[in-house]
Design goal:
Shape: globular
Number of domains: 1
Distance between the termini: 15 Å
Order of helices and strands: HHHHHH
Largest sheet: none
């Protein structure tokens, strides 16, 4: 069961909120470094996974079909890594859309979680709705305006994380001791 569909403790909500807020502040303070790092880490991941998949393709017991599919996957991953290195701007723009879709999905799940909490009898607060709406708004901005650039992505997503973290910590603060937090 997801953290979005069951209540969490005050401590869990506080830690989650604090981590989100700190990461958000880092994104806002150093957007150029953050985006560059993400693109490089993406390239490194793709190369590492391509090597792992290639090894699996030549492992004992792999069928011919498995080898072909794993080989295609390795070529695509290596190509993605090279694209990220040669054209980091395009890679950052694509990542902007992916992060936007993630934020929309997470916000939708938070809003759905609000309904599930109500069904199981947990007094859910409006903080879960506020967090879900913030996620969806940030995601829509990133998806519909990916050309705003990767730096803007870092700033928008960082601001969202700061707000989300503050909302989670505030929800933990106002929740009575012993009761679950609905954020």
């Amino acid at each position: 069961m997801s953290m979005l569909t069951h209540p969490v403790s005050r401590g869990q909500a506080t830690v989650r909120g604090l981590l989100a807020a700190v990461l958000g502040l880092v994104l806002v303070a150093w957007p150029h470094i953050t985006i560059g790092t993400v693109v490089v880490l993406f390239a490194v991941y793709c190369v590492a996974d391509a090597v792992t998949v290639t090894r699996a393709a030549f492992a004992d017991g792999a069928t011919r079909g498995d080898r072909v599919l794993l080989g295609i996957r390795a070529v695509i991953e290596f190509g993605a890594a090279m694209t990220a290195i040669v054209w980091p701007g395009i890679t950052a723009s694509a990542l902007t859309v992916v992060v936007g879709l993630y934020a929309i999905t997470a916000g939708g799940l938070e809003l759905a979680g609000y309904g599930r909490l109500a069904k199981i009898g947990v007094k859910a607060s409006g903080w879960l709705i506020a967090g879900g709406i913030a996620s969806i708004v940030a995601g829509l901005l990133l998806v519909f305006w990916p050309g705003i650039g990767a730096v803007t992505l870092a700033v928008i997503f960082g601001a969202y994380l700061v707000v989300y973290g503050a909302v989670a910590m505030l929800a933990a603060l106002v929740t009575p001791h012993g009761e679950p937090v609905a954020a």
